[in-house]
Write a structure and sequence with these properties.
about 120 residues, mainly alpha, 434 Repressor (Amino-terminal Domain), 2 domains, two-stranded antiparallel ribbon
């Protein structure tokens, strides 16, 4: 299992940002994330980081390999990649030449979620 620091560092790399940039975005002190190498973060700090990356706190703590938040039907893990199903549906924009509205996007999100659950990729 990876440490919380390694997981946060990996998430930053996947987002194309540095740890210092994350600290700035979360209004944290300079180099405060490097403290994760030695100490477990407070519950508040952990939740703040989890919210930023839209992952579970259990994932940040290394308790699970699945970053998806429990009960979230808007995300699926496919081939090791986390997909935001709502964003994927919204990016479709058109179906059969007609624009999608919010109800269409909600429907597509639920269909994609059910599909990935049935394949065991959630």
């Amino acid at each position: 299992m990876f440490s919380t620091f390694e997981i946060v560092k990996d998430l930053c790399e996947k987002q194309g940002i540095s740890l210092n940039t994350l600290e700035d975005k979360l209004k944290l002190g300079k180099n405060s994330l490097y403290g994760l190498k030695r100490n477990q973060p407070s519950a508040e700090r952990l939740q703040q980081i989890a919210d930023y990356f839209n992952v579970s706190t259990d994932y940040l703590l290394g308790r699970t390999d699945n970053p998806a938040i429990a009960g979230s039907d808007e995300f699926a893990q496919v081939n090791g990649q986390i997909i935001d199903l709502r964003k994927a549906a919204a990016n479709t924009m058109l179906f059969d030449g007609k624009p999608l509205n919010e109800d269409d996007i909600d429907f597509i999100t639920s269909v994609l979620s059910a599909h990935f659950k049935s394949k065991g990729e959630r």
